[in-house]
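Posting for a labmate who doesn't have an account.
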Amino acid sequence: MIIKPSIRSNVFTNAHPEGSKAYVASLIEETKQFDPIKGPKNVLIIGGSSGYGLASRVALAFGAKANTVNVSFERPPKNKKTGTAGWWNNIHFQSFANTLGTTHKDFVMDAFSLKTKQQVTDYIKTHLGGVDLVIYSLAAGARPGEDGNLVKSKILPIGEKEEGKTIDVAKREVKTLTLEPAEEKDIEDTVYVMGGGDWQDWVEYLNNEAALNPQAKTISYTYIGSEITYPIYRGGTLGKAKEDLETRAGLMDDMLRESVNGEALISSSKAVVTKASVFIPQMPLYVSCLFEVMKAHNVHETILEHKYRLFKDMVYGSLRQTDPSGRLRMDSFELNENIQKETMNLMTTLSDAKLLQLNGTHDFYKTFYAIHGFGLPNVDYDQDIDLDAYAKMKPE
């Protein structure tokens, strides 16, 4: 089977097993360029199969020689369907991590489920004793409600509709995207799915089961962003979910300080390319222009570099940068006044055609394809993939 990129309405419907292997390998090679991290020994990552969660796992496994446990819900290959990129990322991470002499376990399960929390906690207590760090990096669009029915999040503005531009990745053209304002239920549902409720459930469960080591930490990621993305990101339903996340971090911080002399942290990350980026008005063009400017000023960081600096300097180092709300400000390079001014200038003065020609826009495309296993160097995409043989591979 020859696997070529399949994109429908800006959503990849497939992934490439060998390309995903090359992507994970590239993250590991980046890690090897940095000094070791004096960090945690046992780490639980909820949502560690892609994005910031995967970058965190690689940074700590290969940079701090930590044992890692990952919880992620991914689809395996079946018939002619390739499975999700996260499925392959888990498998290939395991194949590379097997050389480290440390322990790495994947639970391909629903992170919201109590059954999952029980099984993962039992494994941690049996095989690791306890964890030093809990990373919550889950990017789910739905969560089972108390009645068992799925509650779905909606990334919408609040108060009035929002219109902006996005990039059609398949056609390589700029399109206008209009989002109608959220209703009250949309806000409630998005906070329920994407807020801090499940993160708090995990930490409280681990704490009650005595599965947190002394001085254990937990961290989740937020995004504040610039003025141009504020109406839909921080000022919309997603922003309400992030506010809930940050409020619950404060509650957990009090609990952890009392129970294990630990702490709960929020890190405000930089803008990156994610699977959801293309559905947020202005975000693809903002990220493209931002990459252009940050690279020109030599302050651009890859997703791996960003998370490596977080753990080395701020979580386990002595170079913390915090704001009055106590958030770790990893986004200081992005929000530098001059960087923002130049980024806004590109977005507001260049034509759509010229925006598409920026190196930063090509970086956006490249990253968007790479996270699905496509466009990686030294991968033969004309190779006939025996998907039946690949389907026998499973995360350990």
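Reply:
Got it, the structure tokens are right above this. Residues 237-259 form the longest helix (23 residues).
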